[in-house]
Design brief:
The chain has 266 residues and is an alpha/beta fold. It has 8 helices and 12 strands. The strands form 2 sheets. Strands 5-4-3-2-1-10-11-12 form an 8-stranded mixed β-sheet, with helices on both faces. Strands 6-7-9-8 form a 4-stranded antiparallel β-sheet. Helix 2 packs parallel to helix 8 and helix 6 packs parallel to helix 7. It is globular, with a radius of gyration of 19 Å. It binds magnesium ion. Magnesium ion binds next to loops.
Length: 266
């Protein structure tokens, strides 16, 4: 990543053109919405929803949320008037705006191992917050003391790591947690969306977490990858934006670029 984002963004937005549908791919938590200990209270940054609504109302941009959460949680938190496409559980499930729902099928041995982990950690979550997902075992330690967090991490790793060395699972650290995941990651959403859409472009993916790096890499050479985060870190992203101000600026420029490419309101 270069330190100077302005020329990269200028070049990106100058690529908006009549007859093409820009593709806006967005992570939710930490990107569109600041973290909240109660994740059902995590609503978009002030001003972000309004800008996304304006972009949706233009009816030009193809807007898709790609999240680690179950996809069904996003619609009401995002609060847009029209349903949008959502890839949930890091690409495991796809919710189409018309209500269709697709899910990846896991091989039987992988499914059995995952069910066993769910059973164990639902009974005793080592003091962390355990989340049993259809494609993953997720341990959270956000909000715990450093000492408690270290203990939860140690015990979780002891359980997850042997499985991650076998077939069909990957170990994915994220901020304040650890995930043992089966199947696809966020790159599947990027690859699929780009392959389906002949008139799409330019494309951008905005994300904050380590799990977004797979999507950043998938977009390389085909679009703009944007790290949205209070602090910079090692990343495959092309540019870094500090939320909320730089994120809101980006969405405003997006809206204006659509408008100026004379594709805007019909
Ligand atoms: Mg995130």
């Amino acid at each position: 990543m270069t330190a100077d984002t302005a020329p990269i963004l200028n070049r990106f937005f100058s690529g908006f053109a009549a007859g093409r549908r820009p593709l806006l791919l967005l992570d939710y938590d930490g990107t569109l919405a600041p973290f909240h200990v109660d994740r059902f209270q995590a609503v978009p940054w002030p001003g972000a929803r309004e800008l996304l609504q304006q972009i949706q109302d233009q009816q030009v941009t193809r807007m898709v949320v790609v999240t680690g959460r179950p996809g069904s949680e996003i619609g009401s938190l995002l609060g847009l008037r029209e349903p949008i496409e959502i890839w949930g559980l890091h690409g495991f499930e796809r919710l189409h705006p018309d209500g269709r729902h697709e899910r990846e099928h896991l091989p039987d041995p992988v499914q059995r191992n995952l069910s066993a982990v769910h059973e164990q950690l639902t009974g005793d979550s080592f003091g962390g917050l355990y989340e049993a997902k259809p494609n993953a075992a997720v341990m959270h330690w956000r909000g715990l003391s450093a000492q408690q967090a270290a203990e939860v991490e140690r015990r979780t790793r002891a359980l997850f790591e042997p499985l991650a060395h076998g077939q069909g699972f990957r170990l994915l650290p994220f901020e304040a947690g650890l995930e043992l995941r089966a199947g696809r990651d966020k790159s599947a959403a990027v690859d699929t969306l780009l392959s389906e859409c002949a008139d799409c472009g330019p494309a951008a993916y905005l994300g904050d977490d380590l799990t977004d790096e797979a999507a950043f890499r998938a977009l390389q050479g085909r679009g703009l990858s944007v790290l949205v985060r209070p602090e910079l870190r090692d990343t495959a992203a092309d540019v870094w934006l500090k939320p909320p101000e730089a994120l809101l600026d980006f969405l405003e420029r997006w809206r204006d670029a659509v408008e100026e490419s004379s594709l805007g309101r019909k």
